[in-house]
Design goal:
Order of helices and strands: EEEHHHHHHHHHHHHHHHH
Radius of gyration: 24 Å
Number of strands: 3
Helix content: 40-55%
Largest sheet: 3 strands, antiparallel
Oligomer: single chain
Number of helices: 16
Bound molecules: acetyl coenzyme *A, oxaloacetate ion
């Protein structure tokens, strides 16, 4: 395949028919040993383990370790890893200062993206792309993201930063730092489940972005910063925030289910995409949704909000009837985060805090067997042409 159409044509001619895979849909780009998304069996494996089993039996810290090292930690390895993660939870004054300078109109994803960039710019080891150095950077980002996300949510409410608690696990501490109260176990468990389910999903758009950046032999922080930019969009991670905006448009509370159906009809008539539904790879439902939906049901009960579940079910059934399209992970995750008390704009930064594990595992995998990622394009612009001669001072063409 050529990078251009044959010379002199603007439309590819009949004899030259390169196949274009718009959006790289269905195109295998490389191998990965990190996760397997299987739409036929509706399953998702992290390093061979079904994600549902992981969510039921291990913590997010163990999943992070698994993604980076390929194996679950034994007790001694876990203790050492947890100690390392807890040690890096604090936030440097410089990061807080720069975050403070960002206007409150900045989206929290822009804040997280900037904070990661600042951490990268301040790390003297940024150019060192050895696996050992990249693993250290990954653990530090993993440990610091809860501080960044909670700091930003709290500053928007004019609340002080809450220092991390080193006696708490990752998820309990994340909730503690955000809300300044010791969280209840049931809430911690639901949050931990969301972190595990969001951690990794093969060559999705943000992970692929990270791999493209890594493939140029740029640095890990740049790869994560770029991945955050890709995740922000509502066709990808931004959908968990967008789900809640839809719920707000419909209006939660009594009668929400009836309103949801009318809202859906109007939205589909306007050809709007319904956020939290559909998936590039899963065409028969997202493997992670049942587990996240269980967590939603537990949170609905915990916070006494049956109206939210009614709205959830009404939209889900409406989409199934009208379009035959099923929810993706962002659909149950949005209302779960809402019930826990996170600001709607903070939902996608929570996804970042989880997915940083997958992104960085992919950066290390890319570097271990690197090839510059540079696909081809097929030119369909104007035929070759030439810059017209410029006029002289009198406006006449130059001799
Ligand atoms: C964690 C994640 O990132 S999961 C994805 C989160 N994103 C969302 O929830 C955003 C809403 N969903 C979507 O926009 C899409 O389903 C995507 C982007 C996720 C997947 O898109 P693709 O695989 O490219 O499918 P595509 O957009 O071509 O959709 C195929 C058809 O289904 C329709 N469709 C797909 N999703 C939706 C939706 N959410 N609402 C309405 N119609 C939809 C499309 O309009 C299209 O219809 P058409 O053939 O009549 O034009
Ligand atoms: O795989 C995708 O395209 C999007 C997704 O579900 C994810 O990144 O978790």
């Amino acid at each position: 395949m050529s990078d251009q159409t044959p010379q002199g044509t603007t439309v590819p001619d009949a004899a030259f028919q390169p196949q274009i895979f718009k959006g790289l849909a269905g195109v295998p780009v490389d191998y990965t040993a990190i996760s397997k998304v299987n739409p036929e069996t509706n399953s998702l494996l992290y390093r061979g383990y079904p994600v549902q089993e992981l969510a039921a039996s291990v913590t997010f810290e163990e999943v992070a370790y698994l993604l980076w090292h390929g194996e679950l930690p034994d007790d001694a390895q876990l203790a050492e890893f947890e100690e390392l993660e807890r040690r890096h939870r604090g936030l440097d004054h410089e990061v807080k200062r720069i975050v403070d300078e960002l206007p409150l109109t900045a989206h929290p994803m822009d804040v997280v993206r900037t904070a990661v960039s600042v951490i990268g710019a301040s790390d003297p080891a940024t150019p060192d792309d050895s696996r050992e150095s990249n693993l250290e950077k990954s653990i530090r980002l993993f440990a610091k993201l809860p501080s960044i996300v909670s700091y930003d949510q709290r500053r928007r409410h004019e609340l002080e930063f809450v220092e991390p608690r080193l006696d708490l696990g990752y998820s309990a501490n994340f909730l503690w730092q955000t809300f300044g109260e010791a969280p209840e176990l049931e809430v911690v468990n639901a949050f931990d489940t969301s972190m595990i389910l969001y951690a990794e999903h093969s060559f999705n758009a943000s992970t692929f972005t990270a791999r493209v950046i890594a493939s140029t032999l740029s640095d890990l922080y740049s790869a994560v910063t770029g991945a955050i930019g890709a995740l922000k969009g509502p066709l990808h991670g931004g959908a968990n925030e967008a789900v809640m905006h839809a719920f707000d448009e419909i209006g939660t509370g009594e009668g929400s289910a009836a309103r949801a159906t009318a809202w859906l009809d109007a939205a589909l008539a306007e050809k709007r995409k319904i956020m939290g539904f559909g998936h590039r790879v899963y065409k028969n439902g997202d493997s992670r949704v049942p587990t996240m939906r269980d967590a939603l049901e537990r949170m609905v009960e915990h916070y006494h909000r049956p109206d939210l579940l009614e709205l959830y079910v009404a939209l889900e059934e409406g989409m199934a009837e009208r379009k035959g399209i099923k929810p993706n992970l962002d659909y149950p995750a949005g209302p779960v985060y809402h019930l826990m008390g996170f600001d709607t704009e903070t939902f996608t930064p929570l996804f970042v805090a989880s997915r940083v594990t997958g992104w960085t595992a992919h950066v290390m995998e890319q570097l271990a067997s690197n090839a510059l990622i540079r696909p081809l394009s097929v030119y369909n612009g104007p035929d070759e042409r030439h810059v017209p001669p410029k006029g002289n001072a009198s406006g006449e063409p130059a001799a």
